[in-house]
Amino acid sequence: MKTDVPYVELRAQSAFSFLRGASLPEELAAQAAALGYAALALTDLDNLCGAPRFHRAMQAAGLRPLVGAEATIDGEPVLLLCRDATGYGHLCRLLTRAAAGGASFQDLTEHSAGLVCLLPALRGPLRTPLARGDHEAAAAVLERLLECFDPGDVCAELQIHGEEAEDLGNGMLVALARRYELPLVATNDVRFATPDRALLCDALACVRGGTTLEQAGAALLPNSERALKTPAQMAALFGDVPEAIENTVRLAERCTFTLAALRYRFPTYPLPPGETEGDFLAALVQDSAPARFRLCHETLMDAAFARRVREQLDRELSLIRRLGLAGYFLIVWDIIQFCRSRGILVQGRGSAANSAVCFTLGISAVDPLRHELLFERFLSEERGEWPDIDLDLPSGRGREEVIQYVYRKYGAAACGMTASVIT
After folding, report:
1. In what order do the strands lie in the sheet with 184-186?
2. Beta-strand runs (E) in 182-235
3. Which of 120, 205, 305, 371 has its CA 20 to 30 A from that of 85?
4. Which pLDDT band holds residue 3 (cuts at 50, 70, 90)?
5. CA of 408: how far to CAs of 347, 401, 404, 415, in Å?
6. Backbone angles phi, psi at 160, to 5 degrees
7. What is the model's pLDDT at position 211?
8. Long-range contacts of 287-290 (CB under 8 A, 24+ apart)
9. Where are the alpha helices (DSSP H) in 50-120?
10. Are 54 and 29 in contact (CB under 8 A)?
């Protein structure tokens, strides 16, 4: 084996993996950097909740974050890594199907492009036939999986954790890989960054199972081998199959997708013929500004205040144009208009109240000039972040009516429901 090939780990589970991992994404990234890794994959069970934090932590450490997850397919976890953006979209679809009642092998067949599947001996679809020593049943399951994926996108995953059953399974897995010409890759079923977290992982397993350390039995890990190992330790463990280490590195190089490739594109606001989003937004603001600012003052605007309003609106509109955000403001304005046409209460809140454009469009109700609010708290070229306009709606039928309007007008592919993961 080449000694100058950096090792990468393709399987690590974090504390976001339904209590199966005992380290946060930041801890895994820090330890990978300390051990001299080039890349690391976060592969939590049936979710990507830790992926954004993992991405940021890995980038800060100068490492490449690989994206993947274990998706439950017909009741068994299948480890999938994203090769490209197509694979990421398909992984998200499979995880959605799994959460909505279960993903099937048919779903996997339809959404396998851009994904790589790793098959270990003690977990996943091959687990049961290999545990029984049933080579032909294992071959039948493997053939079914091979039908789902493009050639070269299924790998035999070797792991060594000092367990006899795993060693026996690895032997049968290698035989299957030779028979079907599958690449061997070497991984570690990482549940925690450092060995001293093994007891915490056991405690979390007890929380998941509603039991105690004394009564958990086989639910606990047999040892602390599921920590990140050094490249030298991995090379020593797999000394009799050195190609597995090299194949792991090659596979990581094939998986070029990271979350940095995701660039959100706002849906297109339907404009009158010949109009641009920037010009249409500016015309709306110009038409609405006199009445909006008069309503909040007992007397008509004096010349000085009118000039101040124009200068602020021009400054904001200029920045909105430069950042390509005019369509975003138009869509929010459109939602506001729909709510008012249907008598549905709606109110913008948060930092959007600092924007004179938002106030002019009726998105927010607070005059930012009168209250001397700082626009840059809402939108700034230096911050490099999307503006965040929150709209509060009443629960029940009115809220659902607005949601359905957005879906109808802008299309299901441009809309999504989100949820917060509270930790």
Report:
1. 39-42, 64-73, 76-82, 115-119, 154-158, 184-186
2. 184-186
3. 120
4. very low
5. 22, 11, 6, 10
6. -130, 115
7. 95
8. 288/360, 288/361, 288/362, 289/313, 289/360
9. 51-60, 85-99, 105-110
10. yes
| Assigned token pair, 134 | 């049933």
Q: Which two three-digit tokens encode residue 128?
A: 């049961």
- What the block records as the tokens of 317 is 């509109």
The 10s digit of each residue's pLDDT in 243-269 is 999 999 999 999 999 999 987 778 889
In SS3 terms, 249-296 reads as: HHHHHHCCCCHHHCCCCCCCCCCCCCCCHHHHHHHHHHHHHHHHHHHC
Give residue 255's identity as a one-letter amino acid code: C
- At 298, list the tokens: 């007992």
% of the chain surpassing 70 pLDDT: 97
> What pLDDT, on a 0 to 100 scale, did the predictor assign at position 263?
78
Q: Which of 144, 3, 170, 9 is nearest to 78 (CA)?
A: 144
Give the amino acid at 266: F
- Amino acid identity of 157? E
Q: How far apart are the first and last CA of the chain?
A: 43
The three-state DSSP-derived secondary structure of 346-396 is CEEEHHHHHCHHHHHCCCCCCCCCCCCCCHHHCCCCCCCCCCCCEEECCCC
Token digits of residue 177: 């890989």
Give the integer Cα–Cα distance in Å for 258 and 234.
Answer: 25
